[in-house]
Design a protein that fits this description.
With about 270 residues, the protein is α/β, with parallel strands linked by helices. It has a single domain, classed as NAD(P)-binding Rossmann-like Domain (Rossmann fold). About 50% of the residues lie in helices and about 15% in strands. The protein has eleven helices and nine strands. The chain has helices at about 20-30, 40-50, 70-80, 105-135, 155-175, 195, 205, 210-225, 235-245, 250-260, 260-269; strands spanning about 10, 35-40, 60, 85-90, 135-140, 180-185, 190, 210, 230. The longest helix has 29 residues, at about 105-135. Bound molecules: NADP nicotinamide-adenine-dinucleotide phosphate. The site of NADP nicotinamide-adenine-dinucleotide phosphate (NAP) has 31 residues, from helix 1, strand 2 and helix 6.
């Protein structure tokens, strides 16, 4: 018999760096075996090695979640272990900064595939299995970006608005089937995110950010406490509160100030 089979099992997507890696570490430290996913083989292997040091079994699922095949690979990896999933962290995601008329269309359509379509695809299968067993927990990494119109990062904020809303919606349905759904809503966090999103030269890119470890701890605790959603960090909680008070045009203007490239701002002055 597999000696690890009595340990719970968590699947974390986008676990090679940043918030996903730290979420995986939280689960490992709390006695979970892991399935971790990302698309870059070297990064995934390095993450697996670092997580194995926490004890427990770590299985890798190398897959590009922009594609349906990638989602199937992750699901097949999970099924091949012959154990039910206790936790899914649907976390993989990317951003893209820039003026909408100038950003690359293919990059944005890929981002919608990854941040939205693959989440629906993966969670559909995992939630059905959890509902059948009447047991399981799903943590969706949304964002406080989903609460405001994201000028100069517009498509990304739209994808996170989808996740923030959809997570709450399926939570309401799944609670009857004894499955917990929690939306983790980080604000600016120190990860690869802003560099990958071409946002180094922006106010938010240069700002002091929360650590991925702190964000992951908040997410882990909220999921275990059966919270519907959680905004990570006091400053971000305040920012989230402001989105309830200010009208959308004012929020869009504030977002422009955070996300418009500094060089473009300077040239306009
Ligand atoms: N950082 C922030 O300020 C912030 C704030 C709010 C929400 N978030 C959300 O937090 C989540 C994690 O982002 P992060 O900040 O931790 O950034 P990150 O350090 O760049 O991590 C992104 C993770 O997603 C993976 N990934 C990217 N494209 C993928 C693909 N096509 N298929 C599979 N995996 C893929 C990356 O793996 P590879 O390296 O292999 O591509 C990496 O493991 C995202 O959903 C992001 O929207 C971030």
């Amino acid at each position: 018999m597999n000696p690890q089979a009595s340990r719970p099992l968590a699947l974390v997507t986008g676990a090679s760096s940043g918030i996903g890696l730290e979420l995986a570490r939280q689960f490992a430290r709390n006695g979970y075996d892991l399935i971790i996913n990302s698309e870059d083989a070297a990064g995934l292997e390095a993450a697996a090695q670092s997580l194995q040091a926490e004890g427990g079994q770590v299985t890798t699922a190398l897959a590009d979640l922009r594609t349906r095949d990638g989602v199937h690979t992750v699901l097949e990896t999970s099924q091949s272990l012959g154990r039910p999933l206790d936790v899914l962290c649907a976390n993989a995601g990317v951003g893209l900064g820039g003026r909408f008329t100038e950003t690359d269309l293919d990059t944005e359509l890929d981002m919608i595939q990854l941040n939205v379509a693959s989440q629906v695809h993966l969670v559909k299968h995992v939630a059905r299995a959890m509902a059948d067993r009447r047991d399981g927990r799903i943590l969706i990494t949304g964002s406080i970006a989903g609460l405001m119109p994201g000028s100069f990062q517009s498509v990304y904020n739209g994808t996170k608005a989808f996740l923030d809303s959809w997570g709450e919606a399926i939570r309401e349905e799944l609670k009857e089937q004894n499955v917990v759904v929690t939306v983790l809503m980080p604000g600016a966090t120190e990860t690869e995110f802003f560099h990958r999103a071409e946002m180094d030269d922006t106010k938010v890119g240069e700002s002091k950010k929360m650590s991925a470890e702190d964000v992951a701890k908040v997410g882990y605790e909220a999921l275990m406490a059966n919270d519907d959603h959680v905004v990570a960090g006091l400053k971000n909680k305040f920012q989230a509160l402001m989105t309830n008070i200010l009208p959308d045009p004012a929020l869009a203007k504030l977002h422009r100030d955070m996300a418009q490239p500094n060089a473009e701002k300077a040239a306009a002055e």
